[in-house]
Amino acid sequence: MHGFLVLRKGRIAAEGYWAPFSRDRMHRMYSISKSFVSLAIGLLVDEGKLRLEDRVAAFFEDKVPDHLHPYVAQTTVRDLLMMAGPHSAVSYSRQDRDFADTFFRKEPSHPPGSVFFYDTAGTVVLTTIVERISGVPFLTYMRDKLLDPVGFSKEAWCIRTPEGTSWGGSGVMCTLRDTAKLAYVCMNDGRWNGKQLISEAYIREATSKQIDNSLSGDIGYGYQIWCEEDRGFSFRGMGSQFAIVYPDRELVFACTSDTQMMGHIAPILIRNALREELLANLHDGPLPADDAARKALERKIDSLHIIPQQGGLTSSYAEKINGKWYRLHENPMNISRLRFTFEGDEGRWEYENESGLHRLDFGIGKQKEGTFPETKYFGERIGTAKGEGYTCLVSGAWVEEHKLNLLVYITDDYLGTAKMTFSFIDDKISVHMLKAAEWFLDEYSGFAGGVLA
């Protein structure tokens, strides 16, 4: 978890952040970005510049092939809003140089508007339509109409696709409060402080069931917005980014996280906790003052921090292996050699792989902020290397007398986790690495063995 916010009856009831995350820090929202794109579409509809029945191919004469498949040609803006496009797989990959273009060239599998398939490529197309009509990035288009009136961060921005448009399917960088504010506007049918910023009709459609998605265990989908029980709705993003809204209870719960390593279980746990701890205990009227409980909550919030690797702080093996190089046999990570050095409650991992000789400092039983030593990962534009390493938190601990674990949290514009085990027996080393990150850390996954050099 990185941050949480509980908004009740228009006021913040509780808010907290796990250090080093903070209230004003821009955070990757992943697919919550899709809900923002939906609001941009609604603004265009309000202006009369777009109709939900418009066929998307009409906006892409420069991209559609000469023999466009009828299913793709028939696809409307509304089809894409409710994830009912004609494809059964996302059309692009990280290697493609034009994400929108692939949508029109991929062979479709079924008529549009018929079944639910969660397709980020469809949102890429919707974002591009917004930017082609408005002539500016979609967040810029939304500024004077919606974002500025609610106090949305001026520093907010969006990662771009290879072709240069905003990656509205996944790339918005903003604060947790920014997300909560837009969720609050939707909870109030498009209004902020009594002013109608986006039409009530569009918001009511966008936040209510437009298509069945019960095959995946959900209860419906609106326009890039998920349906929840008890007439609720939610913005959702990979890694447990959430804004969950219950209009009848005047409640917004929002959080930022990176739970990719936990798979599908973490979002379930968060939503269960919301139902069991918050929804089940809401009261319509004010509660009696409880100063002790309030202070306990404040102490808990003030103490929130990212937990480091758990385990022992010392081991006899630290002295045995300190500064000694190990040569690894051929392995999926392409690491040829590595060594550890220790000093007090910190350590350093040095290793050589295909991209050169690297070092990564870590805390022992504590987090150490640093920079992950790969510079080829994407930056502000997909497909273009950032040219510098991602910021990260790194910690280590001895999980057995002879076994050291490292835990790497990537905390940059891209979020991810790497877990590593290094086992030392006699003059031999065994290595096991796992990663959970979209489009990076791929070379930090697998097994290796080696010996003292």
Note down, in words, how this protein is organized.
With 453 residues, the chain is α+β, with helices and mostly antiparallel strands. It is built from 11 helices and 21 strands. The strands form 4 sheets. The chain has a 9-stranded mixed β-barrel with strand order 12-13-14-15-17-18-19-20-21. Strands 2-1-11-10-9-8 form a 6-stranded antiparallel beta sheet. A 3-stranded antiparallel beta sheet has the order 3-5-4, covered by helices on one side. A hairpin with a 2-residue loop joins strand 14 and strand 15 (356-364). Helix 4 packs across helix 5 (120-134). The radius of gyration is 24 Å and the shape is globular. It starts with a strand and ends with a strand. The model has no long low-confidence stretch (mean pLDDT 97).
Secondary-structure map with pairings?
Layout: E1 3-8, E2 11-17, E3 27-28, H1 32-47, H2 70-73, H3 77-81, H4 99-105, H5 120-134, H6 138-150, E4 157-158, E5 172-174, H7 176-187, E6 191-192, E7 195-196, H8 200-206, E8 226-228, E9 232-237, E10 241-246, E11 251-256, H9 265-278, H10 291-302, H11 316-321, E12 326-328, E13 337-343, E14 346-353, E15 356-364, E16 368-371, E17 391-400, E18 403-411, E19 415-425, E20 428-437, E21 446-452
Parallel strand pairs: 15-17
Antiparallel strand pairs: 1-2, 1-11, 3-5, 4-5, 6-7, 8-9, 9-10, 10-11, 12-13, 12-21, 13-14, 14-15, 16-17, 17-18, 18-19, 19-20, 20-21
